[in-house]
Amino acid sequence: MSIARFKSPPARSEERLDFRYRALRSSVGIRLAQIHPGSGTKGINITLIEDFVHGGRTTYDALSYTWGSTTRLKFVTCNKRKLAVTETLLAALQQFRHESETVTFWIDQICIDQDNNEERNQQVSMMGKIFGGARKVIAWLGEEAEDSKAGLQVASNLLRVMARYPGTHLNNINLESHGLPKPGHKRWQALGAVLRRPWFSRVWVIQEVVLSSRVEVACGQVTLSWEEMEQLIHHLDCPSPNVSNIIGTTVSLELPFKRINRIRVRHQLAGLDQKQDGKTELFDLLLVSRDFGATNPRDNIYAFLELGAHNVSPDYDKDVRDIFMDLAAHTVSSLREPSCTNNYPAALFGPQYTGGSYASEKYFLNRPRREDKFFRPMIMLSCAGVFNQSLSLPSFVPDWTVDSKVRPFCFWGSEKYHAGGDALPEMSLHPKSRLSVCGKIFDTVRLAGCTDLHLSEPADAKEKRARIAAWFGEGRTMAASSHSPYPAGMSSFVIPTTTAYDRILRWNELSGVEAALDSSNPTYATFIEYLECPQGSTPSSYHSSLMGVAVGRVFCLTAGGYMGLAPYGIQEGDVVFVALGGDIPFVLRPVGEEFVLLGECYVYGIMGGQVMLMEELPVQDVRLR
């Protein structure tokens, strides 16, 4: 019996072989995807060609989009072979191909061999030049949905009104007179949903948009220029009412577009200077974009390499913890480097919106600054702490893969304070991932609140009121439990602890910005009223400010009778540490002869450098692990 009859039949002609990448012929070579004509759901046909990042012969557009799921289950034809792509990319390809002409794009998922880390490293190092060399960048928000159509229509109407009546400021009264929906209407909410699509929170889009001179934002069939987006957000964010009132949102972060655009504008004002001294420090970009997401945690760093000054080279084989450690070491080492010539980029922060609170952009732009190299290591510690980590890292190393549970005090104007005096900070790295910081251990935590005030989590009004009541009640109980006068520190002014409690709650005690407070003392009851405000009304600056400072923090009382705010999760026995030259104290947890960093704290009565004048407290090095 012949066994030939049992051989597998030859592949049918319509079955395509899988596409295989060939190595790029040049270290400055890139691939470009030529998308052939087609329409509708007809299969996508691509020819992949090779060109150069400098002096290339082919004009191309760059596609900026979200991968969504990293699983590639859809297929296109690439150089007559089968190439797997994600569902989101397939939708974009169907949207942007032309019915009768071939169009050329640079698309990361197609133009980079995603399974070749060596090539990824090399291509990522050129990403800025790739996007900067594109004719334009198309930001693909995704396909249209029923609500997006309504939102984009109201955006178009708003732009038309503003073009017809330049200088007009929107308010609760004149919206409807201009043919626009009233505040909180479902069409405004639909626009808010479009402006919070995943694309706006993707870390890579910052570099992709900043380095391009021409950007178009597309959602389904609708396209807006970046300049139109700027106008749109500007009109939504006019002083009365603000964004949250018009588009009907509650407690949340500011629109991500504003932070992206802030970096873009700053880059443009710098004249697109690519010299080292003309770039923003990498750490500063990470600080501003901390809650932006990336599929690969390494990209939380690598996505900024073309924008920031650094000594980092992309390496996708490197453990992400080592990448974060190296960045922390670089930040600490700046204490021993010559002064930086650029000022700390306060303009990047702008009016940060956290838990209902804007800090003053004017303050951030005009505040006096000490030298950057002394300020950044302290900010690094403010962004770190075990409560803000998911990776196994030393407690002093920020975990850039997670959103900070507590907004660092630097966003609220921490330079009003000089808890560590005017001395220069002193810290140094040691073997086994240890960091020594010079300062004074001030006091020990005796009582700590246990209510986690995260009002951004889904909860009904009743639950929110109960949580706020518990949070306030813990502080009031602590204040009442201390029958002695509040410690005066180096001052002879004596106040009751309950007065300290009231002052801690005051926004102008927690910020470098003077807030407009009513003459009457704010209370828990009036704070509750904030939650019950009808849509479209504007809460007082006090209530919105307190919301931001309180989120992720609890009241605490020290053994010495000092009261303050510290990260949720602190406990009896933790210590308050004031670092030399630091604006804000820290809470540490003793572990043998070493300490674990928990986070920043505000302690009423020691924020002006009083601890540095207490001779009975020795200056010492504490070792963080």
Automatic annotation (TrEMBL):
Residues annotated as signal peptide: none
Domain Heterokaryon incompatibility, first and last residues per copy: 60-208
Classification via InterPro entries: HET, HetReg/Transcr_Mod
One matching Pfam family: Het-6_barrel
UniProt-recorded name of the protein: Heterokaryon incompatibility domain-containing protein
Source organism of the structure: Cryomyces minteri
